[in-house]
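look at this record:
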Amino acid sequence: MSAHLQPPREARPTDQPEHDLTTDELLDLFGDEYTRRVYEAIAEQPRCGRRVAEAVDVSRPTAYRRLNDLRDAGLVRTEMSICEDGHHREQFEAVSTSLTVSLDESGIDAMMTIVD
């Protein structure tokens, strides 16, 4: 029996986001009330899409659209689980982030840091 060791993967620095969002994209994303509510719900605790929709009182399609937008932006991760009845369920979890927004005479600047 032989073992093959692979070199360790280079860790991504925790102060650099995986997804580079512009200030406009970030503000557009969180400028939407439903997106903010959906993000707050999963930041409170991981949930499946149906539970997110119930928690924020929106339709499931609306919840899933916002969850997908947040996932595309790198702010949400998902995990698939199989229930006892054989159905699969996608669980959504907020990625730890830090958001800084500054306002001055030159305009608005936003910086998001993803912390794993």
